[in-house]
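Course assignment 3, question 2. Fill in each field.
Student: A.L.
Task: Predict the tertiary structure for the chain below.
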Amino acid sequence: MKKFMTFLIIFTSIIFISFSYLFLTKPTNMPFIGHFFDKVFYGSLYYLSKPDSSYIYKKHEGLDLKVHVFVPDNPKTDSSLLLFHGGGWAFGSSYSLFKICKDLSDNGITCFSAEYRLSLKHSSKVQDSMSDARDVYNWISENSEKLNINKEKIVVGGGSSGGHLAASLAMIPDDSGSTVDNISALVFFNPAINTTFFDNGYELPENIGERRKKFWLYLKRLFDGKSVELSPSNWIKEDLPPSIIFHGKNDRTIPLPIIEEFTKHMKEKGNEIKLLTWEGKGHQFYRWDKESYSEVINELLSFLKEQTFNF
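Answer field:
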């Protein structure tokens, strides 16, 4: 009985200390459950597939933004892949892409998973995240020799809002009117490639849940009335990098017709783009379905081999 009471006291103390830490470190705008998920779930992902190294690519108002690097033991190419995680520009973690990066590095490819500012953590807006995406790309390019990669052969990709960030580098001009013109290829996982509906009079369905409705309205505010201007779908032009899209046919967050329309317009401009769809699969299906994940990785490797990777 004494041992049990000792164990109970220790266990209770650990739980109390842990939750006190979570409450004290919770960002102002972040719901507690979101902070718990971020620290506990995403935090555990770091140790399941640890990167080989991590670098601070940007300092902003006391915040250190990092890019995590997965280096292959037996490199097969000097090309590389930079990935941005999803989460509606509001939450999420670069750790969520660690498994993909680890599997790619096991296949001889250097892979980067980048952090960027998120609204619930850093009170940022979409354009802040876009700025971070450009800064991490520039940092990788400027440090290509140290990283043992070819700065002319960087592929960029991402999932959901991370796909928007990847596309923005190649498609949406920055304040100086320029885009990144030497991206080798683009990789999209259920990308937020068309954001115009936030400001073009789109009305949410009447049967939408209250929580989802509030979230969509919250996301709209992150664009500061510029969701049309900041939509990659409005910047389709000729000579964009070869692209591939992985998408679930049952995606309710980003419905397939939006992706099909984007693909059609890309092809009309003469761009090389491949859309792969999965029957009955929803948003970010590749993260939760082992069979689909293997299929996505194999298709991704095939696409990379067809492009600049040459291995």
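Instructor remarks: The first strand starts at residue 53 and ends at 60. The longest helix spans residues 2-25.
Grade: pending
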